[in-house]
Amino acid sequence: MSFVSVRDVFQSYGKRPILERVNVEVDEGEFISIVGASGCGKSTFLRLLLAQETPTRGTISIDGNPPAVEPNPERGVVFQRYSVFPHMTIRENVVAGESFAQPLGRFFGADRRAARDRADTVLERIGLAHVADQYPSTLSGGMQQRLAIGQALTAKPRILLLDEPFGALDPGTRLQMHDFLMELRAETKMTVFMVTHDLTEGFKLGDRVLVFDKPRWDPTDPEAFGATITYDFDARDGGIPFQRLTEETHVPVPA
Amino acid sequence: MRYINRKPGPVLATFLALLPFALVLVAYMIGSEMRLAENPADKLLPAPSTIVDTAQRLFSEPDKRSGRILLWHDTAISLQRLGIGVAISAFIGLGAGLLIGLFPHIRAGLAGFIAVISMVPPLALLPILFIVFGLGELSKIVLIVIGITPFLIRDLSQRVIEIPREQIVKAETLGASSFVIALRVALPQVLPRLIQAVRLSLGPAWLFLIAAEAIASDLGLGYRIFLVRRYLAMDVILTYVIWITFLAFVIDFLLKKLSKRAFPWMEEGL
């Protein structure tokens, strides 16, 4: 059984179908890029994965757990904007990744000091230690997104959802963020879903690239049908497929 | 160069800022001069020098009968009523605003009710308040509370709703309960809004305070103004009006400073 399993998911708003018959199985540790034209339902699909919305039909389950009805710590998320808390310092934002699950939302005494130390380690890792006591509004867009990713990972989610995380960044910063994300991923082996507009980015970062599109199209009523996954590319090995086929030679391998 | 792109220098800006005050003062002085020239005993527009003399007397000389300097007593009791009333309103406004903004069930139940209640003219309720709560402190404080709380609730619940959904969802994915989201995400972000809303509602709060004091009281700034009105003592009234304006301005200024100091993460506002 696969790690994330999406079975026969339909989503419609009122009478308007957005997604139809979406099926996909994802293994643990895979990086899934999700691309498609505007309005093709890729953001809706991410909201479904996030359990911010529940599908009208079908189920999404992570690691065999029952489908979630609201966002929970199984899922970490980074949005294009507003992913960090503006009223907390950088360090508090990272600590919040752990402390929000507490009854009062904060740690006290020794726990508090321990959490601060762990947060400082995280900040060191994501290169924000020098601004630990500042507020997010003083950070550049790239630094804010790094903080958002660090904060999300602090809560130790099973899957990480990225909704156009680098969409608001300039091209140079975006390349740095790619390297940053690749390194973090190599360290954590996290299962990642990333919605992006940028095909190059999708193929560069993803193991698989899912393309959302409408398979049926009624020219007199463009909204009559919803979108689904029309392609599921293997984007490993620089996007060149069939690099990992091993021929079954039936020759005994000496042990 | 277009007029919308021309900016005054610092000296000119200061001059322009002071100009309207000077104009009003000059207009008053001319009017006062004209009336006093015709009738030296005119009480309607006392000369600025008379007002200054009266102010000096009011601020420093004790009342002959009670031996107290009435202006300070008036100020103390009025500020106390205003402070208690505004504090209670702010407290209710914050609590109800958070509940309405965050919890759809409470919003469904209360939002419409508050919208209707806020349309009740508070001054029309004043007789009822006097009958129910008596003529003491309580009815005056209740008038202020009734007057400004609906506005605070509506403003703050709107501010809570305006917190980006992304932040709430993010907090949920970090494992935060509804309570933690209210306490750690929504509350700190609406506190500066609360101060802004309180600043805006201070004007109405003064209005309700003075109205209540004018009708039934034996001490207070509003009471004094309406008392000396009987003697057409414009010099006293004007002194009190200027004093009240000054107090209101200082309170507003202090709240603005407090907001800046307490919430350094907020972007610059009004």
Provide the spatial order of strands within the biggest beta sheet of chain A: 5-6-7-3-8-9
Average pLDDT value of chain A? 86
Protein structure class of chain B? mainly alpha
Biggest interface, chains and residues, is: A-B, 35 and 23 residues
Mean pLDDT across all amino acids of chain B: 91
Rg calculated over all Cα atoms of chain B? 23 Å
Largest sheet of chain A at a glance?
A: 6 strands, mixed
Measured between the Cα atoms of the first and last residue of chain B, the distance is 28 Å
Structure description:
The complex is a heterodimer of chains A (255) and B (270). With 255 residues, chain A is α/β, with parallel strands linked by helices. Chain A has a domain at 4-74 and 157-239: Rossmann fold (3-Layer(aba) Sandwich), CATH 3.40.50. Chain A has helices at residues 42-50, 90-99, 109-125, 141-154, 171-188, 199-205, and strands at residues 4-13, 16-26, 31-36, 57-62, 75-78, 159-163, 191-195, 208-213, 228-234. In chain A, α2 (90-99) crosses α3 (109-125) and α2 (90-99) packs parallel to α4 (141-154). In chain A, 42% of the residues are buried. Chain B is globular, with a radius of gyration of 23 Å. The mean pLDDT of chain B is 91. Chain B has one domain (68-262): MetI-like (MetI-like fold, Orthogonal Bundle). At the A-B interface, β5 and α4 of A face α7 and α8 of B.
